Amino acid sequence: MTDPILPLPLQWAAHLARDRRRSVHTVRAYRATAERLTAFLRAHWGGTVDAAALARITAADLRAFLAARRAEGLGNASAARELSAVRGFLAFVVPAAATPRLRGPRVKTGVPRPISPDEALALAGQVADDAAEPWIGARDWAVLLLLYGAGLRIGEAIALPARVLPLGDTLVVTGKRDKTRVVPLLPQVRAAIEHYAAQVPWALSADAPLFRGAKGGALSPGMIRRAVQAARGGLGLGDRTTPHALRHSFATHLLGRGADLRALQELLGHASLSSTQVYTAVDAAHLLDVYRNAHPRA
Asked: Are the C-beta atoms of 219 and 213 separated by less than 8 Å?
């Protein structure tokens, strides 16, 4: 139910955050899409854009909106996400009305490219070696090992509270939409986190973030991304070697060693098995690369 006092995009953002438990980044992006749509329609129709007006929106109106966005340089993948957000917004504002049928742009699904175990460890080691202080190097090493050794997303690792200490054989992780899962901790990963915790110059109270920035605040994911970007060039690793590539590598290497797809889905925290099935293609691509590089007649 909408509130006539708040603008419709703000109402939708509140619904996504409160009722759908979407992330801050998702809420911000979807709200921006709704604001762009209503602003476009205000100029396109030359009148007020309220729930009654949105109930009469046509496929031609949506095509005009997407055409305007494409003229601003929007690519296929971004246009598809924009259309998906628009559909969600319209369904929220006018749930009884049928959203006009409009086929989105074709999006070629990209296959994540993993890196080898040696490359993953070399990357984490280079980032740690490049750190300004020893405790920061220990922190970066621990964070990157969590991505590669436990399959965490960068946001999940950064969000860990200090109450996870002392560590056991498993770690409870809060993922997308506040869903929790239990992941096993390899001894090497546990040792890396404990080494960092022993060096960090701030008290790690239970409710405080485990991983701290240089000034004691919560560590920003951007700091880790920039550190990886700076380190990968010297190791001959490509632009697609990001912190998230370590999570891809975790999944691909487990699958290559015979891991069950359902078990991998649980470890990664995927809501749908289809999200995990992409790694079957990843593993095949990885094996083909190995074959081409090693076979004398490839």
From this structure: yes
46 and 156 assigned to the same domain: no
Segment 257-292, tens digit of pLDDT: 666 666 666 667 665 655 555 555 544 444 445 445
By residue count, the chain amounts to 298
> Does any domain span residue 201?
yes
Read off the pTM: 0.60
Can you tell me whether residue 83 is helix, strand or coil? helix
Tally of structural domains, the chain: 2
Q: Could you tell me if residue 257 is inside a domain? A: yes
Query: Annotated active-site positions, please?
Result: 153, 176, 244, 247, 270, 279
Q: Are residues 84 and 121 in the same domain?
A: no
11-29 pLDDT tens trace: 999 998 888 777 677 788 8
Q: State the greatest distance between any 2 C-alpha atoms of the chain, in Å, as a whole number.
A: 71
Final residue of a domain: which of 58, 93, 128?
93
What is the tally of helices (H) and strands (E) in the chain? 13, 2
Cβ neighbors of 119 (< 8 A, separation 6 or more) are: 235, 237, 241
Question: What is the average pLDDT value for the chain, to the nearest integer?
Answer: 82
40 burial level (CB within 10 Å; 0-12, 13-18, 19+): middle
